[in-house]
Each structure stands twice: as C-alpha cells, then as structure tokens.
Amino acid sequence: MKNRKYIEVARESVSMYPMTGSDLSTVELQELLAVLLGRQATPELTGNLASMGIRTLIEMSVQELKNEGLTELKALELHSAFLLAKKFRSIGKADSRYTIRSPEDAANFLMDEMKDLMQEHFVALLLNTRNEVIAKKTIFIGSLNASIVHPREVYKEAIKHSAASIIVSHNHPSGNPSPSPEDIDVTERLSEAGKVMGVELLDHIIIGDHQFISLKEKGYI
C-alpha cells in the first residue's frame, strides 16, 4: 500500500509537466524513475538510482541495472528509455547548437545532468564565436582544488576544438552552490590563463540543487 501511494504521487507530479508552466528542472529524476519502474518502484530503490545521476544511469547496461536490484524486464525497459533519450539528443545536436547568452542559459544546459551527481564533476563548455556550444568535456571528477584542475587540461580541449571561448562549471553535491575559496582560486587561474591563450573564460557556473551561482556575476571574472 505504501509503495502504491508513492507511485501514485510520482505519476501525478510527472503528469503535471508542462501544464504547470514549470521547466524540466522541476521534475525530479526519482519521480521519473518511479513512473518507469511501476510496481517495482520503492523510495529506496529509486532514491539509490537517482543518486547516481542521469549521466551514469543513461550509460548503464541491462546487467548493471539488474545488479542494482531491477528485474530483467524493468532493467530492459529502463535501458530502452535511456536509448530513446540518446537518440532524441543526437537528433537535436545534429539539427542545431545550443546558444548561451546568459548565466541562466548555461545553468539550464547543465542543471538536469549535474544537480544529482554525488561527486563533484568539473566540465568545460566549448563555444564558437556565436556563443554556440560545440562540445562539452568533463575535465575532472572529485573534490575541486587548484592543484588538480590545471589550466593546461582545460585549454587543451579548447584548442583541440578551435573554441573561441569557454564556460566552466562544477556541481556541489551538498546542493549549496556557494563558492569555496578553492572555487574562486581555480576561477582566477583559469581566467588569467585564458587571457594568455586567447580563449576567454566567460563564466564559472556552480550547480546546486535547482539553483546556481555565476562567478562572473559575483565579480570573480
């Protein structure tokens, strides 16, 4: 009975999008998983899966999903849903490129993928002269500090893709996007390196739980 109520609440929440006028970031990954898993869904199972983050889940095989406690049928159904999402994403990339005109644009591009990650991921968005995203690269996974995130690794990718500018971003698993001294130090080093390399650092976006902070807006760039 408890699980049935949990699934009903998840279905109701998902069914309201987009009638409520909210954006996709308000739809919780755990609720989507509950709807997809149906009777097998429990708060514990969907919570564990959601904590892995969508990037990890979408790359998991049927066997890996089974290892997390799914039946073979549900693992196959979930895997198929992820493959469908991949196909749709590939069509979108072929048809157009995402343009970033503001910190909000950058945060919206990254929020769904990064807000649920349990480890810090440091990524770089590589932009052309029209501020269109030409590539997204994960530079580092783990606690952020200036000794690990070296400008050389970031700008190597920018040069490889002939990027005109970059935006970097990382998530705070705590959900609080307030910058740490290490975040500010990394940002300042990358900004200075970008001036030397001729590839401007436009912003450093810190992703939290449905919220973000732009270090450009805070005056650190």
TrEMBL record:
GO terms for molecular function: metal ion binding; metallopeptidase activity. The keyword Zinc applies. Gene3D superfamilies: Cytidine Deaminase, domain 2. CDD domains: MPN_DUF2466 (cd08071). It holds the Pfam family RadC. Residues 99-221 form the MPN domain. GO terms for biological process: proteolysis. The keyword Nuclease does not apply. Keywords: Hydrolase, Metal-binding, Metalloprotease, Protease, Zinc. InterPro entries: MPN, RadC_JAB, UPF0758, UPF0758_CS. PANTHER family: DNA REPAIR PROTEIN RADC, UPF0758 PROTEIN YEES-RELATED. Belongs to the UPF0758 family. This is DNA repair protein RadC. It comes from Siminovitchia terrae (Bacillus terrae). The lineage of its organism: Bacteria, Bacillati, Bacillota, Bacilli, Bacillales.
